[in-house]
Amino acid sequence: MWNGxxxxxxxxxxxxEGTEEEIVYxxxxxxxxxxxxxxxxxxxxxxxxxxxxxxxxxxxxxxKYAPCKTCGTGNGNGTVYIxxxxxxxxxxxTCPSIIAYVQAVALSQVEYLGACSYCGGK
Length: 122
Fold this sequence. Notes:
The chain has 122 residues and is mainly beta. 10% of the residues lie in helices and 16% in strands.
């Protein structure tokens, strides 16, 4: 049965005619794709701060940092990790929410999003 889409999408199968697919990067809730893994809109710029200090800090949008729903609040003292554009602080540097934030994908999977205005031009 034909479902309205050609095959070899979403990582299934290879690329057609032996050409290599361009890899781009997307964030957790993508609205654009990025050609640079280190684009300032995506970059996981983790900063270690004291747990007591994070309560008074604000992210780049002016919002307060809340505890991460994945790694929790921890014991409330010690070091936590924040990102400039993030909304959560993390008690574990290896929190799955941090690691999984940016994904490398084939351009053909996400070109409908449109390119980032900062790093998307060729």
